[in-house]
Amino acid sequence: MRGIKRVFLVLVVLLVVLAVLAFVLENQQGVALSFLGWTTGQWPVAVFVTLALIAGMLIGPVLVVLVGRKVRRKQPA
Prior knowledge:
By secondary structure, this protein is mainly alpha-helical. The protein has helices at about 1-25, 45-75, and strands at about 30, 35, 40, 45. It has one domain. The chain has 2 helices and 4 strands; from the N terminus they run αββββα. About 0% of the residues are buried.
């Protein structure tokens, strides 16, 4: 059973890696973003999407912890 789980995990990781590789290879056209007067250079679309993903993965758990603390404080003890 342990070997089947390991093989399944390897296959899932391989599929994710292939999907990311396909995404990066399909999104090589250069774009420049402009936000609140700040403009970036010409970077591939995949770079911006990857940076947004990483930012969300960092900010999301922080917000969950902060909201969780507020909810626990409001509950009567």
